[in-house]
Amino acid sequence: MCLTLLLATTLPALAALPPQYQRRAELTAVLNVATEILGIGHVIDAIERTGPDVYAVRSGTCTLTVRIVDTPKKREPGWAGPREFSAVPDPLTC
Questions:
Q1: Which of 15, 27, 68, 72 gets the most CB atoms within 10 Å of its CB?
Q2: Continuous H helices in 1-91
């Protein structure tokens, strides 16, 4: 029992944002990319999560698919922190 506790405390911990904060970070990144691609001429009507790490941004008859892609950076062993990612747009379809 004590050995198990000792081993558990010496292993590196992986920490991520709580799900609601991770989703918020993803939505913010998706919104930023969609705004860059669509410009001010298109109003965003909806953002829908269509699958794991995939969002569909709708603006009128146009749809922009944005994918969340991991972009981990080299860190020292034992480093813990939020998920590192980029929002990557597919071509706009209208």
A1: 68
A2: 2-10, 19-38
The answer to whether 62 and 94 have CB atoms below 8 angstroms apart is: yes
The pLDDT tens digits of the residues spanning 15-70 come to 566 888 889 999 999 999 999 999 988 899 999 999 999 999 999 999 999 999 99
Distance from chain centroid for Cα 70: 8
pTM, two decimal places: 0.76
- CA nearest neighbour of 85 among 65, 62, 67, 64: 67
Half-sphere exposure of 94 (CA within 13 A, CB side): 6
Q: What backbone torsions phi and psi does residue 59 show, to the nearest 5 degrees? A: -145, 100
d(CA 19, CA 23): 6
Instruction: Quote the CA–CA distance of 88 and 34 in Å, as a whole number.
Output: 10
Question: In this structure, is the dihedral angle defined by the CA atoms of residues 82, 69, 12 and 7, taken in order, positive or negative?
Answer: positive
Q: Alpha carbon 5 to chain centroid distance?
A: 33
